[in-house]
Write a structure and sequence with these properties.
Blueprint: E1 3-5, H1 8-18, E2 24-29, H2 35-45, E3 58-61, H3 63-66, E4 69-72, E5 82-85, H4 100-108, E6 114-119, E7 124-131, E8 139-144, H5 148-168, E9 181-185, H6 193-208, E10 216-220, H7 223-236, E11 241-248, E12 255-259, H8 268-280, H9 289-303, H10 323-332, H11 337-340, H12 347-363
Parallel strand pairs: 2-10, 2-11, 3-9, 9-10
Antiparallel strand pairs: 1-12, 4-5, 5-7, 6-7, 7-8, 11-12
Helix pairs in contact: 1-2, 4-5, 6-7, 8-9
Length: 381
C-alpha cells in the first residue's frame, strides 16, 4: 500500500521511525525526484544547535560530500595539483590518529591503480601513479589530477573508511561516536556497471564484517545497484531491509512511497508513463518532463537491444530519420534547468513533446486502461 507524505521532512521523519525496527532501508527513485534533498532533510532532523556544542547523529554520503573536497590545480606552476579538504566539517574528525591512509588504501586497492598521500598540516591530498615505459624502469608520476570517476571512487573509499571506524568503535568512545545513523545517496552515479556491482557488494561486506550495525538508508536511481543490494541484504541480513519506491507528485508537491518486494523497482516505467500521459493532456508541461521521457526511451531501447534511444522514437513523415525529435529529447533532457527550474515549455515545444510521447505509445502497446480517466478501469500492478 502506498503512503503519501506532504513534504520531504515528513518522509525523512518516517524513515527515521522505520529505522527503529529495520537495520536498512533501500529506496529507489528517479533522478530529480528529490533524493539528495531527502538525505539533507534526514540529517537536518538529527542536528541540534542549542548550546556551545552542536550535535548531530547522521553520517551521510551525497552530492554535498563531494563539495567537502576541492581541487587546487596550481594555476601558476601547473605542476603541484592537490585535493583540498574542508576540515571544518565533522566528516574529518580524528583524521590523523585513525591512520586514514592505511584504511582508505585497503579499500581503494580493489578499484584503482593510483596512490595517494594525505598532508595533515595543509589538509591536502596528493595523488600519484606508477607508469611503465617500454624499455625503461617503472616511474612514479606525482601531483597528478585523477579523473572524475577516479575521484568519486576515492571519496567513496574515504567515506567507507569512516563507516568502518564507526562500526569498529564498540564502546562508542571514538571520534565518530556521534554517528547513530547513516544515509547513502547514489554512490554509483558516475560509475560503470562493473564498478556499480563491486560497490554494492563491498558496501554490504563492510556491514557483514562488523560485529555491530548502524541503521542505514540507501537511495539510488541505478537499477543494477538496487538489484545487487537487494540480494546481498536478503542473503546476509535475513531480509532485515525495507524496500521502497519513491515518486513525487508535481501537481500538489507531495511524495509517495510504496513497498517493493522484488529485486527490481517494478512498474516504475508504467508509473512514469501514466504520469507523462496525464501531463501531456494538460497545459502545464515543464522542461524536466523531457528527462522522464528520455529515461523511458533509453530503458526501452536497452530492453529491445538497440544501441540508442532514438530507435524508439516514431519517425515523422517529414523527418524520415527521426533526427528532429531526437534533437528535442537530447537538448531538453540536458542542463540543470531541466531538473531544478520548473520552467514551462513554449507551445511549439509542448506540441513536439506530445507528438513524441504519442508516437511512443502507439509503437509500444501498453494497456490503454493505464491512461484512462476512469480509475475503475485502471488495473493495479
Amino acid at each position: 500500500m502506498s503512503t503519501t507524505h506532504a513534504t520531504l521532512d515528513a518522509l525523512a521523519t518516517q524513515l527515521r521511525t522505520d529505522l527503529a525496527t529495520r537495520e536498512f532501508i533501500l529506496l529507489y527513485a528517479y533522478n530529480g525526484t528529490g533524493k539528495t534533498r531527502l538525505s539533507t532533510a534526514f540529517k537536518e532532523i538529527g542536528k541540534h544547535n542549542e548550546g556551545e556544542d552542536p550535535t548531530r547523529d547522521t553520517l551521510y554520503f551525497n552530492a554535498f560530500t563531494e563539495d567537502l573536497f576541492t581541487w587546487d590545480n596550481d594555476l601558476e606552476g601547473d605542476s603541484t595539483r592537490v585535493l583540498r579538504m574542508n576540515i571544518a566539517s565533522r566528516f574529518f574528525d580524528g583524521l590523523e590518529e585513525m591512520e586514514m591512509e592505511n584504511r582508505i588504501g585497503k579499500l581503494l586497492s580493489r578499484y584503482a591503480d593510483f596512490d595517494f598521500r594525505i598532508d595533515y598540516e595543509t589538509s591536502t591530498i596528493n595523488f600519484s601513479r606508477q607508469v611503465h615505459m617500454e624499455g625503461e624502469e617503472p616511474a612514479i608520476i606525482d601531483n597528478i589530477k585523477v579523473s572524475r570517476g577516479e575521484q568519486n571512487i576515492f571519496l567513496w573509499c574515504f567515506f567507507l573508511a569512516i563507516v568502518q571506524i564507526r562500526l569498529d568503535d564498540t564502546d562508542d568512545t571514538g571520534p565518530y561516536s556521534w554517528v547513530k545513523l547513516i544515509y547513502i545517496d547514489d554512490p554509483v552515479s558516475s560509475l560503470d556497471e562493473h564498478n556499480a556491482i563491486v560497490v554494492a557488494n563491498h558496501l554490504v561486506q563492510v556491514f557483514r564484517e562488523s560485529s555491530k550495525t548502524l541503521p542505514t538508508v540507501i537511495s539510488t536511481h541505478h537499477h543494477l545497484f538496487f538489484n545487487v543490494l537487494h540480494y546481498e541484504f536478503r542473503n546476509h541480513f535475513q531480509g532485515n531491509c525495507k524496500q521502497l519506491l519513491l515518486t513525487s507528485n508535481r501537481v500538489d508537491g507531495t511524495y509517495v512511497t510504496q513497498p517493493l518486494k522484488g529485486d527490481t523497482p517494478s512498474f516504475h516505467h508504467v508509473s512514469a508513463l501514466t504520469e507523462l500521459h496525464r501531463i501531456s493532456e494538460s497545459d502545464t508541461i515543464h522542461t524536466y518532463h523531457f528527462n522522464m521521457l528520455r529515461v523511458i526511451l533509453e530503458k526501452t531501447a536497452l530492453f529491445h537491444g538497440y544501441p540508442h534511444f532514438s530507435a524508439c522514437i516514431k519517425r515523422d513523415g517529414n523527418d524520415a530519420d527521426g533526427i528532429l525529435h531526437q534533437r528535442f529529447v537530447d537538448l531538453l533532457s540536458h542542463g540543470k534547468y531541466s531538473l531544478f527550474e520548473p520552467s514551462e515549455m513554449g507551445e511549439e515545444t509542448k506540441a513536439y513533446f506530445r507528438t513524441i510521447l504519442r508516437g511512443f505509445l502507439e509503437r509500444y502497446q501498453f494497456n490503454p486502461a493505464l491512461f484512462s480517466n476512469n480509475p475503475e478501469e485502471t488495473p493495479i500492478p
